[in-house]
Amino acid sequence: MRDQGSIGWTCTGGAVFGLAALLLVWLSSGVSLLDDDWGHLRLCEEGLRSLLTTGWTGLAGAGGYYRPVVALTFYGTFLLAEYNPLPHHVVNVLVHCFCGILVYLLALRLLKGAFAAWSALFLFFLLPVHVDTVYWIVGRTDSVCALFYLSALLLFLAYRERPSPGLLAGAGLCAMLAFFSKEMALSLPAVLLILFCHEGSVRSAMARRALLCSITAMIIYLCARWMVLGGILSGIPDRNLTLPGLGLDVLKSGAKMGMTDVRFFGVVLSAATAVVFWLSGRPRRVLRDTLYLGGLTLVGLAPVLGRVHRWYLYLPSVFFCIAVANVWAAWQPDRKAVLRCRNLLLAALVGYYGLALAREGWFWREASVLSENVLKTLAPLAKENRGTLYVLNVPSALSPPGSLGEIPLYAFGLTNALAVRTGVETPVVAVNHCWLTDPAGFETGVTRLGPAHWRIEVRNGGYFSAHGQADAGSLYGPDGKLRPGVIRKPWGESRFHGPGTAEFVLETGPHDRVAIFDRGGVGGLQLRNETR
After folding, report:
1. Which of 39, 127, 488, 521 lies in the 20 to 30 Å Cα band around 247?
2. Which ranges of 112-139 would DSSP assign to H, the alpha helix?
């Protein structure tokens, strides 16, 4: 492969990369604390011992999470900024930047070309599917894991070529930090094995030591997980591990990695890359490299197959982006006009991804305004620390038209958010949640059927959700919306007649307050047994 002038690519790429990073910092500066952010930052108030000996949400075994390294990064920024979101967001973008640099170094190491390496960096850095990792503070989990994961890979590869105890120790430490950041790192030994096999060095003593070091780090993590959570698999939800389900997950993941608000754009990217491969003359080396990079992508997905979410694609997308960059860099036409056309096409693709990611930033800023308005309205009710505050239609997430997907609001975070803002530990019950598509137009019809019994119908702008209700799983259909059913709680019951109609019966006391989110704001249904 011919080098396209590494110095020129470095200067141009570095300048564009810096400007893109500044844009992400500016967009993130307008995003508030959202959903899980409140609870994880509140956990920092309890000190290092709690951070190191509890699960991700502060409850042992909850969700099968044990991520003390990421919790420590929160603790560090919390000591400086407490609940000011800006420094937390700056750290998120910085970690994402460092991951982009490591993608560049790994691509340079694997592909040996500046054009391919810069292409991989920009594809990875601006993929819209990374929106949660960039704009959501708790999304840092995936980028911190990837930071140490990629560092470990590069150090292990360097150790194989230039053996030294320092390199092996550094690689082992990075591997350990990756495992203690997120469960996605469990693919590291397998990825390392594939890389050594691809290079034909798997039988060397250095390769065997590197593999043993990575496996030892993983065993230490699994033992710590067992001690903290009570078992290696504790808290892990059921998954669809059937062969058709796994195959569908793989196809969806491949499409999602390249998607924008245009859902099928990942397919467009794959098709365009296939055309470029055809035009390049279909070199066997490129085909071989692409297939093994595709294998690395699949191995990176393995820990979450059966339950793939958008943010889980951060680490696997590293190999996906390097594979795509490898194919585009292999097309080296002799005519300069055609070569410039290739460069312009790739620049247009990366630019489109950057615009899509920036647009998502505006959506997250709009969601933050909504979140802050809800808190501002509910805070006076929460400060009355007598009785319980019941909230109907708690906004769970926002999916505005044209967005990549849902933006978290208060699926789990309302109680923590109000406690932080008011300084009062008022009992708060999220009776039900709603999924918003148009918060300003969200409108319900409310009919009072008894002293604390209401029938509510959604007329516009969203639908009901029972997000966070542990016993609501059976009420969800294949489309993800609620089906008819009843959820019973000590405080009453929710009777869902479908995604847009429900009845709520509460057992309220003399000091309890009932509020509802409706028409873009919060109003009272029952305040201290006085209605309005």
Report:
1. 127
2. 114-126, 131-135
